[in-house]
Amino acid sequence: MTWQYESKVWRNRAKASVTDTAKQLLGDLQTKRELLSSSGPIVFVAHSLGGIIVKQARIA
Known about the structure:
Shape: elongated
Helix content: 40-55%
Order of helices and strands: EEHH
Protein name: Podospora anserina S mat+ genomic DNA chromosome 5, supercontig 10
Largest sheet: 2 strands, antiparallel
Structural class: mainly alpha
Organism: Podospora anserina (strain S / ATCC MYA-4624 / DSM 980 / FGSC 10383) (Pleurage anserina)
Number of strands: 2
Strand content: 5-15%
Number of helices: 2
């Protein structure tokens, strides 16, 4: 599964905060796992801002 987010910045402000983006990731992930009836482990591969979003999602 791949997941993407809007990372554009306008006037030094992102359109969504890292926390909001992390919550969206968790919601999308939950929906996908329910659709697939999946409960196995999850491995995240991320870099840069994506890594920060994954870290935020883990503590949310």
